[in-house]
Amino acid sequence: MLSVTNLNFSYEQEPVLKNISFHLGKGDFCAVIGPNGSGKSTLLKAVSNLLDSPFTGSVVIDGKPLATFSARTLALQLGFVAQRTDVVFDFSVFDTVMMGRHPHQSRWQVSTPLDVAVVTEMLHKNGLWPLKDRQLTQLSGGEVQRVMVARAMAQQTPLLLLDEPLANLDVAYKFEVMKSLRELNREQKVTVVVVLHDFSFAKQFADKTLLLKQGELLAFGSTEDVLTEPNVRNAFDLPPCYRMDERGNVYCE
Ligand code: ADP
Ligand code: MG
User: I need a labelling partner for 185 at 20 to 30 A (CA). Which of 68, 159, 163, 203 fits?
Assistant: First the structure.
């Protein structure tokens, strides 16, 4: 589904992604974990073809090199939720989630009953139905984020990349978002790549984990093998007092 080979990228002089290689199959659920500035967002943007300058190495999605996709064909393969969304245009929640259907529509086509049904389902799935007629500027940060997740889900792509989708959410919605991602993953075999900061969510939901440190792939494999105390200590340079229990809770003794 997604093969990344020898990916290297720099914004300026300093390399930000260093020789990253990994492969995800259809239906994998992969957490991306690493310290601030380790390259997580850059990696997701590279895969989504959102970087302004070129990278070296290869990104292959569903057997085809990234460069061979048009914006539209890529949007049919891959949904992306950015770490931050600046609300620039004031659309309603419903219309924003409907934007996820655009790649499926021809240019001047109005929404079909299928589009409306999918948008309605994703609004319900993300607890947004009561907010459907609100303008984005009238929402909290966490609510905007859930709208962006719902929009990406409405795109119905085989691959979903989400950059810290839990960051502004309360604990109940964190679980709701992870549960609806897992549902799509299990029922539709959607491949999910999600940047997380909470090891316990990774351990509960992700079967694979990609651990980054300063642009390097420190470890990749099953979450159980990757999210060990020594790996986490190494990735985050944790002082000796820190411990991580088997559920992924970190504490200082
Ligand atoms: P993460 O998401 O893991 O916190 P990022 O991928 O956002 O990390 O950033 C990786 C590194 O690249 C950081 O050192 C960051 O300062 C730098 N960086 C990110 N975006 C830009 C940019 N647009 N221009 C220059 N440097 C950037
Ligand atoms: Mg980031």
Answer: 68
